[in-house]
Structures are given as structure tokens and as C-alpha cells.
Amino acid sequence: MNCIENYPLTDITTMHLPVKCKYFIEYESVFELKEIINSELYVQNKSLQIGGGSNLVFAGDYDGIILHSKIKFLNILKETPDYVIIEAGAGIVWDDFVKFCISKNFYGTENLSSIPGEVGASAVQNIGSYGVEVCEIILQVHCLDKKTGNETTFTNAQCQYGYRDSIFKNEYKDKYIVTSVEYKLSKQPKFTLTYGPLKHYKESLSSDDEMSMSAIRNIIIKTRDSKLPNPMEIGSVGSFFKNPIVSRDLFDILYRQYPSMPFYQVTDALVKIPAGWLIENAGLKGFKIGGAYVYEKQCLVIANNGHASSNDVMALCKYIIDTVKEKYGILLSPEANIIL
Ligand code: EPU
């Protein structure tokens, strides 16, 4: 077991905060992970599993073990003329998996291009973008019980997926470690082109036959680059907040006041409002506390100017929540996983 003490988390988390953990351990197989779970060090310390560190904000140093998967196998379990089932190790970089699927003409991941992070976390967080959520292609999730070391498999339904949500963030929080994920992908062309820039792409073609996953990937990468900071250059966790879902009654009151407010109808009684718009319209674009600031091109992102401390980020998070609550009566909740 390769365990490093006092390991800096700055470069293995995309927020790039100057924090450390007491122990850092990586493993390459389920067998190695079981050995770790059975070790004295593991039993005596608290632990946290990380993926690409792209959704984690440490409120301070972590006084325990940070575990990171390097399980990287990719197996095709079943292939028919219509679909393929692939099992991917939790440690595979998510976008490498997307590139693999596109290269093989397997449809379903292309709208999720360029999302930072790894396969394991994709199944916990139910990552989503441009009209697609990963739960639409997940078949099963293989896990290890953190206490017993036993292997368990959860079906898609058992994962209780919702908007950026799953059972692993609620009832089973900190109970399981995802070791691999099975995806079911279509081999027949199947596109989701409902989102703005992709709609334009569809309209620009003379026939559906011309559509390609590579073109969709390129449009998405371009759109993301124009709005979201590149985590290699500017520290952030992408969306810091979830888009709040409010009652129709509250929405109606706000809409009368702010007719330019964008929204998505969720059900007859519920409406989702972009947190980025609420924050920008509250006058917080570029607002800064210490080295943490509201990213100008997408206000739902908290960025690090290279000198932010955990305290700066936490103070800015609180300030945004308080300001939005006061102005609209809406309580924003972080999408980022804040580790206290
Ligand atoms: N808007 C503003 N000001 C802002 C940001 C957004 O007015 O600062 C407005 C936009 O003009 C638009 C609306 O809000 O009318 C929605 O903005 P956008 O299309 O950028 O999407 P979003 O709802 O802000 C969500 C996801 C992103 C994902 C995009 C595209 C959440 C919390 N965020 O953002 O996910 O890339 O849709 O599908 O659901 C991530 O999770 O890290 C992430 C970036």
C-alpha cells in the first residue's frame, strides 16, 4: 500500500486551494482497495474518496485519508447490432471515456463532452450538460462497502437518480466506493439536440444523415470554453450552485418583477431558474472576497485568482447565498461538495 503523508491537494483538485490531507492513498484494483479497507490505518482514520477533484471544496486541511482510484479497465460486456454494454473502471478520466465512445460510434456520451472528473464520480454526481444526464446511459454501478469491503452492485433504479443527485449523495453517503460503472450505449444514431447551440447545429444541416458525434463534441467544447474556466488555468469546480427549483407561485411573482428571467418548466407546479442569472442580476458579477471571485462569464462559478484560501471561498459562498435569499427569497444550495 503506497501511502503518502501530508499530501497537498492543490493540484489534484480543480479549485486549487492550498490545503493538505493527512494521508493520500491510490489503488489500482478492487483487490488493493479491499486490502486498504482492511488495514489498521484505514480503520483508525476517517476517509474520503476523490475522483478528479473537480467537485470538491475543502474548507480546510483534511485530517484523514484521501483515497483515489486508478482502476482503469474498459470491458465490452455485450454487443448487439443496436447497443453495447461497457464496464469502465472508476479511475478512467470521464472525457477519455467520451472520446473512446465517439471513436467507436457508440452514442450517448457526446453531450457530456469535456466535463472534468472521472467515471466513478460521474455515477455519484449524475453529471449532466446540454440536455443529457449520465443516468440516462448508466445500467449498473459496482461498489465496495466502505465498512465490510463487500462488493455490491446497484441497478440504475436503485441509484435513485435526480438532478445532480443520487442515493450516494443521500442515504448511502460515505457508505460505498464506486469501483466501476456499466453503461448501455446505442449503436444506432441517437442525438439530443434540444439545447441552444445544438439546435442551431441541427437547423444548419440539410439532412439528419449529416449529424455527427464529433461535430456535437466540438460545439460543446467551444460553448464550454466560452463560458467556463479551464480548470488547468483558473481554479473552480464548474457550477458551484445547483439551479434552484421553485414553486410556480414564487416563480410567477418573480417573473412579473423580472420578465427577462430565464427559466425551465420542470412540472406544472415547479420551475427551475438558472442560479447564474440570479447571481448576475443581484449585481454580483466579478464580486470578490480575498482571492475568490464570481466568474464574469458564468456567475454560477466561483473562481480562484490563484491566491484564494478556503476561507475566502466559504465566505463568498455564504455572501452569495445571503444576497440571493434577500433579493428573491430563494435559497441556493451548493452543487459543489463542501468538505468541512
Ligand atoms: N445566465 C446568466 N448569467 C450567468 C449565467 C447564466 O444570465 O452568469 C443565464 C444564461 O444566459 C441562460 C441561463 O442563465 O439564459 C442558463 O445558463 P447556461 O446555459 O450557461 O446553463 P446553466 O443552467 O447556468 C447548467 C449546468 C452546467 C452545464 C450547463 C449546460 C447546473 C448547475 N449547471 O448551467 O453544468 O454545463 O447547464 O448544460 O445545472 C457543471 O455542473 O459544472 C456545469 C457547468
Q: How would you describe this protein?
A:
Strands 6-7-12-10-11 form a five-stranded antiparallel β-sheet, with helices on one face. The protein is of the alpha+beta class and 340 residues long. The chain is 26% helix and 26% strand. It is globular, with a radius of gyration of 21 Å. The two termini are 27 Å apart. The chain folds into three domains: 2-69, Uridine Diphospho-n-acetylenolpyruvylglucosamine Reductase, domain 2 (2-Layer Sandwich), CATH 3.30.43; 74-186, Uridine Diphospho-n-acetylenolpyruvylglucosamine Reductase, domain 3 (2-Layer Sandwich), CATH 3.30.465.10; 245-339, Uridine Diphospho-n-acetylenolpyruvylglucosamine Reductase, domain 1, CATH 3.90.78. Strand 17 (292-294) and strand 18 form a beta hairpin. Bound molecules: uridine-diphosphate-2(N-acetylglucosaminyl) butyric acid. The site of uridine-diphosphate-2(N-acetylglucosaminyl) butyric acid (EPU) has 17 residues, from helix 8.
Task: Give a brief description.
The chain is an alpha+beta fold.
Please describe the topology of this protein.
Elements: E1 3-8, E2 20-27, H1 30-37, H2 40-44, E3 47-50, E4 56-58, E5 62-69, E6 74-79, E7 83-89, H3 94-103, H4 119-125, E8 128-129, E9 132-133, E10 138-145, E11 151-155, E12 176-186, H5 196-204, H6 213-227, E13 245-247, H7 248-257, E14 264-265, E15 270-272, H8 275-281, E16 288-289, E17 292-294, E18 302-304, H9 310-328, E19 337-339
Parallel strand pairs: 2-5, 3-5, 4-19
Antiparallel strand pairs: 1-2, 6-7, 7-12, 8-9, 10-11, 10-12, 13-15, 14-15, 16-17, 17-18
This protein binds uridine-diphosphate-2(N-acetylglucosaminyl) butyric acid.
Uridine-diphosphate-2(N-acetylglucosaminyl) butyric acid binds next to helix 8.
